[in-house]
Amino acid sequence: MTTRPSSALRTRIEHTIRFLAIDAVERAKSGHPGAPMGLAAAAFELWDGHLRFDPSDPQWPLRDRFVLSNGHASMLLYSLLHLFGYGVSLDDLRAFRQLGSATPGHPEYGHTPGVETTTGPLGQGFATGVGMALAGRLVRARFGAHGDGPGHHFVYGIVSDGDLMEGISAESASLAGHLGLGNLIYLYDDNRITIDGATILAFSEDVAKRFEAQRWHVQKVDGNDADALARALEAARTEADRPSLITMRTVIGFGSPHLAGTSKTHGAPLGADEVRATKEAAGWPLEPDFLVPDDVRAYFAEHAEAKRAARAESDARLAAWRGANPELAKAWDAQRARRVPDHFTEELAAALAGKKAATRKHSGEVIQRAAKALPWLIGGSADLAESNSTTVKDGGHVGPAAGDGVDPFVGRNLHFGIREHAMGALCNGIALDGHFVPYAATFLVFSDYMRPAIRLAALMGQRVVYVFTHDSIFLGEDGPTHQPIEHLDALRAIPELTVFRPADGVETAMAWAWALERASGPVALALTRQDLPPLVRPAGFAPADIWQGGYAVVEPGARPDVVLLATGSEVALAVDAAAKLSGEGIGTRVVSMPSLELWAAQPEEQRRALVPADETPVVAIEAARGESFQRWVGSRGLVVGIDRFGASAPIGALAEHFGFTPDQLAARIHQHLR
Hints:
Blueprint: H1 7-28, H2 34-49, E1 65-68, H3 74-84, H4 90-94, H5 124-143, E2 155-160, H6 161-165, H7 167-179, E3 184-190, E4 193-194, E5 197-198, H8 207-213, E6 217-222, H9 226-238, E7 244-249, H10 272-282, H11 294-324, H12 326-337, H13 344-352, E8 357-358, H14 359-373, E9 377-381, H15 385-388, E10 413-415, H16 420-433, E11 437-443, H17 447-460, E12 465-469, H18 487-492, E13 498-500, H19 505-518, E14 523-526, E15 531-532, E16 551-554, E17 562-566, H20 569-583, E18 588-592, H21 596-600, H22 604-610, E19 618-621, H23 630-633, E20 638-640, H24 651-658, H25 662-673
Parallel strand pairs: 1-2, 2-3, 3-7, 6-7, 9-10, 9-11, 11-12, 12-14, 13-14, 17-18, 17-19, 19-20
Antiparallel strand pairs: 4-5, 8-15, 16-18
Helix pairs in contact: 1-2, 1-3, 1-10, 2-3, 2-9, 5-7, 5-16, 7-16, 11-12, 13-19, 14-19, 16-17, 20-25
């Protein structure tokens, strides 16, 4: 790396970062200037002297990752991206927070080059970074265990008081310390200010002791002492077996004569008068705004070139590794491509056809078969692996449970512990790394704990598979606290999330196949605890029909008098009710609808062929709220669902109590048709 800047030049660089943020927030008339002002010195030291990246190739696989967990400080990141030449222009900075700009209010993955993950909800970035670090260690164990090859990068981040107050940070920090993620280094912006005022209002714990108790390596520095921070970062990189937290005392709104150190700089522009006073106090020109002095511009151009040169050296070492390990290099390329073998889907569907079992058990069989064929599939459960059927047999454990003498990161089975909040975000980080498709498992009722992370996975278009079992009141005696009622509708309301509720083994196989072969974003599987019979389908059925989201399971042979729509365990119930109705001369079509999202994506003509737009009555059956079906049943339709919480009882008693038996369903449909 080239020489460090002189003291005078460093001051101008730090002022440049501060005033780019101040000017952008002032122009937008909204934003958060205080954190970028306080963090300018530390962020510059990290990016300039320690972070490994190539501005001309933001996806370079050997790069270090940087997570700005306090995403409200986005102008700090955008200023650095601009100065280092990531393609974020001054006009982009001028368009901060404007419609369609490359500089939204909080960083968004895939929207701005150089942004590694979408952050905004506090704590999510913290936990996602833990997932990135875990993925890095998984990659190193597979391909770079002997000091060469991929997986030797670090994950750096800046985290705030707000991140540490959110419970997800405690969950994910605990797991990071337990796993010994020595490739994870966080800078804690200890400015002691939140939106409401000083942190003493609600936060007085000893953060250093908290993280030490969670097996982290903890150091303290002055956030404006670049040399001390450089030494701390070097020490953190040499700490191979523990994640590192560097607590930095900073001043929010640093340099503002009247507002520094106050919550007034957190989430609002300084105002024209204070901007003028701040620039005058720093000896900074009042005009033009968005100023980048020539010597500052030249410094960043030189150091961006140095970053590219360092990248070339890393690539040369990687090429040597490829030459010495051709089979391993081939496997690494395949891992990143995440390809599915030919005929995998067909073989999967055939293997599960005709079997009576709970769909969670079918899912478990899929995982076993997929794990053998797809080395890039990895995952685990929130302490429910046996119930979720997610353990890869002979796959080995990740973490200390791997055993003595075994690389703790070479296994396939992740153990998240009872940490659903962290599990969801960690899987986002694993997916963002680019080498794996992770799956995360728990009971469907606990999907609420994961919802922010699921939403971010959908927003980022990340391939994460959620294995949600015990999907209805029919989990039985555990009662209403564990019986999901509103959760299917809540998940279906998330844009870009595909939800499957399969009815048997073939549908479960095809749901998994979609997630592994076709999906461009997250997929949620809602799976039963109880056994379900295999469906008998009409002639001409092909497993790929399931990917249409809805298909006929029973046809009356003529124009139907009623159409029944059902998902999951209620498909077999609808089939039995249809038999009773047909025996009474009521022609009944049964449509299994494993995925309402895929169904909605089909051409209208195709949908109308199964669910007519005429006066044919349509009845939807789902042992849940069923609000998702209102748009499909029409004005004469009926949704047979549950409008209250469940109850504690055996499955048979619950079915009778809530009206989910063939006789009760047939009688209700009779009544509706009158």
